[in-house]
Amino acid sequence: MILLENLSKSYRVDGRDIPALKRIDLSIAAGEIFGVIGHSGAGKSTLIRLINLLERPSGGRVLLDGVNLTELSSDALRKSRQKIGMIFQHFNLLMSKTVAQNVAFPLQVAGELDKTAINQRVAELLELVGLADHANKYPAQLSGGQKQRVGIARALANNPKLLLCDEATSALDPQTTASVLQLLLEINQKLKLTIVLITHEMNVIRSICDRVAVIDGGEIVELGPVTNVFLHPKHPTTRRFVYESEHVDETTEADDFAHVPGKIVRLTFKGESTYQSHLSALARQYAVDFSILAGRIERIKTTPCGQLTLGLVGSQVDELLSRLADEGIVVEELRQ
Ligand code: ADP
Ligand code: MG
């Protein structure tokens, strides 16, 4: 649905071109929730603003459903932007307008519906985001989570195919974040809406995204399904994000087990195998003793996943490991 080809963006600062994004190649499929994570200044906002051409690229192309946005006339671009909704960290609501008037605004600008139809559409949208009872309040009378719900209703007003979210939950507390993310997931499923979401929080990625790109210094340093990136992070930046969010001390994974006898392995479970008893059954069968050195079991979006670091002692450890591998469990030997 979205295709970014060799996309770059530099900003001219004090007469010099400073690159903010370098050679980005990315494709995002219709219906997916695609996350982009990176530290402050990594280029996330620039990337999302290039997708709807709020910024013009210095090089490369942006294709939306096969149409090259960089070549459109400003009129055609305005039309195709109506198919892209956007929400922001600080909501960007009109403070002197009510909730209903904020949501009606993009419909009035589009000029396709009469007053009755607009009122009806606004009521529908407020119902969808759970604000039916707050139509006549002003933004100042709402909580942060409610303000973002207004932002979402407004972004959806013109039936976009794509929703861009720039740090949409970064100003919210964890519980409110979770409820706004659930709303985004519901909308994604109900309306078959494609969502691109940028964040600096790994938890946001883990709870609703299908795939993730990690961006660092204006480049995509890692890209893949969220489960893969979480369970097998490769780039140092990704590893830092994952280990911070999981409260894992990376050094304990490798160095701290000098006193533990036997072989040290890390097992990764994904999907159904996470909740099955392969390990204990096979350990019994092969008379292997194991100690659990580190571990985590969690859900990544809807997939159960687990990772255990074990010390293994016994004469048939290798047989045990090859049987686990047969069951689809990823076995990594950390120490022979
Ligand atoms: P993020 O959203 O990941 O925090 P941004 O995309 O906002 O990062 O910024 C990426 C880089 O581009 C930063 O170094 C930032 O200072 C620079 N930058 C962003 N917008 C502008 C601008 N309008 N003029 C000059 N530099 C900019
Ligand atoms: Mg930003």
UniProtKB/TrEMBL annotation:
Residue stretches making up the ABC transporter domain: 2-242
GO cellular component: plasma membrane
GO terms of biological process kind: amino acid transport
Keyword field: Amino-acid transport, ATP-binding, Cell membrane, Membrane, Nucleotide-binding, Translocase, Transport
Superkingdom of origin: Bacteria
SMART domains, sorted: AAA, NIL
GO molecular function, one term: ATP binding
PROSITE patterns attached to this UniProt entry: ABC_TRANSPORTER_1, ABC_TRANSPORTER_2
Family label: Belongs to the ABC transporter superfamily.
PANTHER family in alphabetical order: AMINO ACID IMPORT ATP-BINDING PROTEIN, METHIONINE IMPORT ATP-BINDING PROTEIN METN
Function recorded in the entry: Part of the ABC transporter FtsEX involved in cellular division. Important for assembly or stability of the septal ring.
Protein name (database record): Cell division ATP-binding protein FtsE
Organism, scientific name: Chitinibacter fontanus
